[in-house]
Automatic annotation (TrEMBL):
It comes from Mycoplana rhizolycopersici. Residues 5-121 form the Cytidyltransferase-like domain. InterPro entries: Archaeal_FAD_synthase, Cyt_trans-like, Rossmann-like_a/b/a_fold. Coiled coil: none annotated. Keywords: Nucleotidyltransferase, Transferase. The lineage of its organism: Bacteria, Pseudomonadati, Pseudomonadota, Alphaproteobacteria, Hyphomicrobiales. Pfam families: CTP_transf_like. NCBIfam families: cyt_tran_rel (TIGR00125). GO terms for molecular function: nucleotidyltransferase activity. This is Adenylyltransferase/cytidyltransferase family protein.
Length: 130
């Protein structure tokens, strides 16, 4: 069985998130998703996500093709998570291209093209203007 792992915040879920999860899953037989904690987001952006980590986990867990979810507490623990979840492939969007290449000693590293024209930030801006 080929196991895939991917990571993200997945706040205010949109079509870009769904597509990357589906394309990641299509690369193997099992998809594990690490959901960034509220604290990890705060440390990166000085903001907590709109949806709590508990809700974001529940939302992602309910998507067809997602087999397993867990909380990602630190960006630097990816190697540990890859080993813990026995991943054969790490998938990330190409906004992260090159950033995780050093994990190729543990598993294959694949960057998939992002969906153009949509992001959580742009969605929130549109909602504000609505
Ligand atoms: N994504 C995409 N197309 C978009 C927006 C996002 O393909 N239009 C992808 C991103 O490339 C990422 C995933 O969806 O692979 C989740 O995106 P974010 O929620 O923005 O996650 P991010 O904050 O980039 O991840 O270890 C990484 C961290 O968990 C943070």
């Amino acid at each position: 069985m080929k196991k895939i792992i991917t990571f993200g915040t997945f706040d205010v879920l949109h079509i870009g998130h769904i597509r990357i999860l589906q394309r990641a899953r299509a690369l193997g037989d099992h998809l594990t998703v690490g959901i960034s904690t509220d604290a990890l987001n705060f440390s990166k952006k000085q903001k907590t996500p709109i949806y709590s980590e508990r809700d974001r986990m529940e939302i992602i867990r309910s998507i067809i093709g997602v087999d397993e979810v867990f909380l990602e507490h630190s960006l630097d623990l990816k190697g540990e998570y890859i080993k813990q979840y026995q991943a054969d492939v790490l998938v990330m969007g190409d906004d992260w291209a090159g950033r995780f290449d050093h994990y190729n000693t543990l598993c294959e590293v694949v960057y998939l093209p992002r969906t153009e024209g949509i992001s959580t930030t742009s969605t929130l801006e549109e909602i504000r203007r609505y």
